[in-house]
Amino acid sequence: MASVWLLLLTAEPLLVATVERLAAAYGVGVQVSSLGVSSLRAFEQRTSVVGSGVPPALVLVGADHEPAAGLPASASGVPRLLLAVGPPHEGLWRSALELRAEQVVLLPEGEHLLEDRLARLGSTGALTLGVIGGCGGAGASVLAAALARTAAAATPTLLVEMDGFSGGADLLLGAEDEPGLRWPDLASARGRLLPGSLATSLPLIDGVHVLASVRAGPPLQLSVAAVGAVLDSARSEFGVVVVDLPRHLDEASSAAVRALDACLAVVPSEVRAVASAQRVAASLRPLVGDLRAVVRGPAPSGLSPLSICSALDLPLAGLLPPEPRLRAALERGEPPGLRERGPLARFCRELLGPELPGARTGRRGAAQEMLR
């Protein structure tokens, strides 16, 4: 898995020196691009050849950045800050609005603000897994809930529902009547939430904290800032965070994908499902460094897991056999993975592996071990 890095767009020596010094202290890599359209094009060509393919976790833009140069494609949907040296001026705030910057940081007085943001990037935080359906009805929400229940037996765990058209992660876990916050209550979140605020305010069922969408009314349009604030806080409060993703990614769900340690695409063993999953995988590749396929049986046409993974150009995370009477159990309100000896629960234990009890410490390293 590639290390965390940020993109700095400036030709101001003080900004470069300050950012590189602070980033080095927190183990965050820095790529600097000077001003101008040509330099940004050269940057994109360089990173596409020698880079990891993982986009930056943060974009820092100097106030001297040339507006005509724009931003590189790799910065699309990535949180960004506007940096300036000296006292503020009217044009600075106009630039921040045009840039859609989350924050303006004035140096050297605001160095502590930048340091706090870099500290969060450099922090290993929770093991963060995404689950997405390769096609409609693939069972991604069921697998996400089962993974969260399995992880919760060993470490504090949060299940985050990102699909506004879902039936409700709280309903899936039987927690629809549990008191606590849902996404509408956090839609205006910005920056960093108070420590412990998620663990103390979200519904809790079977040891799993749940951040669910709402089932009534139009789907909530989440902002990148709100998703970033929630996931930043979640990484510091929990040992494992499981994100149930929609198949059609907007800016907010794309930001969630960028925050993942790994993403699992659930693909039924059917020809049309594989064709659909190819498009889903293509949309995810630029956003996450570790993308794997979970192949779900049965296979009516005899498609093998290896042939499916070959068609998707993805490594195999595992084969999920069908679970008898699962649909009836879900209709009765039983949470996924309740049967300890069932295929679903067994698959989740094998996927997360024996390293799960250590997920709360050394989490990014554990991510590779747990999904190896």
From TrEMBL:
Coiled coil: none annotated. The lineage of its organism: Bacteria, Bacillati, Actinomycetota, Actinomycetes, Kineosporiales. NCBIfam families: CpaE_hom_Actino (TIGR03815). This is Rv3660c-like CheY-like N-terminal domain-containing protein. It comes from Kineosporia babensis. Pfam families: Rv3660c_N. Residues 10-122 form the Rv3660c-like CheY-like N-terminal domain. InterPro entries: P-loop_NTPase, ParA/MinD_ATPase, Rv3660c, Rv3660c_N. One of its GO terms (cellular component) is cytoplasmic side of plasma membrane. GO terms for biological process: negative regulation of cell division. GO terms for molecular function: ATP binding; ATP hydrolysis activity.
